[in-house]
Structures are given as C-alpha cells and as structure tokens.
Amino acid sequence: MSDWQQVVPGGGAQSALRFFVDPYRPDRVYLLDTIAPHIMRSEDGGESWHVDTSLETQLSYGHTIPLNRNESIDGQDHLDVVLSDMQFHPLDPLTRFAVGFAGAFHTADGANWVRLLDTAALPGRPVNCYFDRISNPTEPALYVAFDGRGIVKITDL
C-alpha cells in the first residue's frame, strides 16, 4: 500500500485497546475492543471483524471477567487487560497462543481455544509469551512471562 488505511473503527470493530497481527499472515489481526466489548478477529486485514467467541470465553473466564477491564498501574501500561499478548506459529496457520489476565490459551484448529495456564491456580499476571518450536522440535514449548514474577514453560502442546 502506498497510503495508510484506517481499519478501526470500521468493519464491525469500534476500538482497539490492544491489537495483534500474525506476522506470517498479515491479513489475520486480533484486537481487544473495549467499547463493544469483544475479542475481534479479522482474516482480511481489517476489512471485516468477527467476534472470536471461543477465545473471548476463555479470556473472560466464562464471562466472569469484564472484557472492557482496563486498569493501569502507572497510568500508561494496561497490564490488567484480558488479552495482553499473542503468538502465531510460522508454519501452521491454525496454531495460535494468547495470554491475559485469566491465563494462557491455545488453539490448534484456529477456532477452539483451550486453557493452558489458569491464574486462579497459579496466581500472577501473564504479560507476554513466546512460542519456541526450535530448541526442541519434538517438544515445542510456550514460555509465559509474569509481571515481576518470572517465566513459566508449558509443554505438551
């Protein structure tokens, strides 16, 4: 593109407190819309947005955590949001990971998300994640970083 194109608001999304672009498939974008509020996914570069119901249910702990949760620690960093980071598999377009206030989540089919880590069982604030498929190709791992509390390695993905 020679010019920038605004994609939010538009196509069904109203705001983007956080957004995540699949670096291997840049038409795939996720966002945290705190006005609607919903977890939205676009497969066409933001032309249209759809609610990712399965991810939304997991991130909100079955709709018990408000999706428009927007607390900040220092007035700038929004660490207590339901979706704080995502990772995408470079070779498998269906495999994705997400972390947020309620834990860490995974989908192997691009549609059905499952919980890998529950912050009710392991208290902490997941803020980032890293998918490592290189170090041990037979046992890939997801590393989840906690705000001020270290890192957890999750295998058996």
Key descriptive features of the protein:
single chain; four-stranded antiparallel β-sheet; 1 helix; Methylamine Dehydrogenase, Chain H; globular; mainly beta; 157 residues
Structural description of this entry:
- The protein is mostly beta strands and 157 residues long.
- The protein is 4% helix and 34% strand.
- The radius of gyration is 15 Å and the shape is globular.
What are the low-pLDDT stretches, counting only 5+ consecutive residues below 50? none
* Series of H and E elements: EEEEHEEEEEEE
The tally of structural domains comes to 1
Q: Helix- and strand-based class?
A: mainly beta
Strand content: 25-35%
Question: Major beta sheet, specifics?
Answer: 4 strands, antiparallel
Shape: globular
Helix share bin: under 10%
- Which fold name fills CATH's third level, the topology? Methylamine Dehydrogenase, Chain H
What's the count of strands? 11
In DSSP terms (H or I, runs of 4 or more residues), the helix count works out at: 1
Task: Give me the CATH superfamily.
Answer: YVTN repeat-like/Quinoprotein amine dehydrogenase
Average pLDDT, all residues: 89
Measured distance between first and last alpha carbons: 37 Å
**Main sheet: strand order:** 1-2-3-4
CATH level 1 class label = Mainly Beta
Q: Which CATH-level-2 architecture?
A: 7 Propeller
* Rg computed from alpha carbons, rounded to a whole number of angstroms: 15 Å
